[in-house]
């Protein structure tokens, strides 16, 4: 449990909530319901063993923070609890709720133990895959999906490894639970991309050899079907830039060919190459320091500083190439 003041609001609350959910209990010494709620929250923090952190804020001593949060959520009474996740206030509740209702609230924001372990295994699997130990990586990813079937990145990482091994049917089986999310007006781009990756593997296994495709393209530079086949071969062989180079040749000659299939495949390759941020893995809160400059007065920032993920220069380069080809 940590006590929040305007001096440590950013370093102890916003920064820490980037990786561990924090429940901020806004209370006052004169508030009877606050005294009832406090011990329940402390008990739950202990029981959850680090999956969330309880923070306390005395509304009488820190009126600026309490007032801004109350205004944000349209609340005028205490106790008032605010859940912070990834550096932002995301939800809250008012009053001394029964323990069962608080557990329901926590369930919306605090990962269960299986989900945490699945995320850890996914991270470990990525490291193993980077070192070439695909078998161990796949074993971890399979276990992660058993623990947390909703871990999309574990699913997609496993599909990539299966495609690299040419395991078409297993890749289709792993993709099947999310396949419906790749169709319709609300189709998810990342799911669509992995569906196209599996389609590329199927085409590569049934299509012509690279030498045959090269000969076809040499004979007719506008043989877009051959170029697409060659791009699919490159993609599933782990050569995405060569695949995109072939697709660019199609896009520059005929953007609309086959319902923009070249552009859609190109975008899918970029999506598969991209690595979205992992879900935060809860960790014990650590002491943090952060001062706005010597002698600077404390300043309240409700919106947390967003950590900008490093970009991949190859992905950036090929995004620019696509943009230039389209416009």
Overview of this structure, please?
The chain starts with a strand and ends with a helix. Helix 5 (113-130) packs antiparallel against helix 6 (134-147), helix 5 (113-130) packs parallel to helix 7 (152-164) and helix 9 (189-206) crosses helix 13. It is elongated and about 85 Å long. It contains 14 helices and five strands. Helix content is 56%, strand content 8%. Strand 4 and strand 5 (88-94) form a beta hairpin. 32% of the residues are buried. Among the domains are: 2-110, Glutaredoxin (3-Layer(aba) Sandwich), CATH 3.40.30; 207-282 and 308-327, Serine Threonine Protein Phosphatase 5, Tetratricopeptide repeat (Alpha Horseshoe), CATH 1.25.40. It has helices at 9-14, 32-48, 63-73, 99-109, 113-130, 134-147, 152-164, 168-175, 189-206, 210-219, 224-236, 240-253, 257-273, 313-326, and strands at 2-3, 22-27, 53-58, 80-85, 88-94. Residues 284-301 and 303-308 have low confidence and may be disordered. The protein is of the alpha/beta class and 327 residues long. It has a five-stranded mixed β-sheet with strand order 1-3-2-4-5, sandwiched between helices.
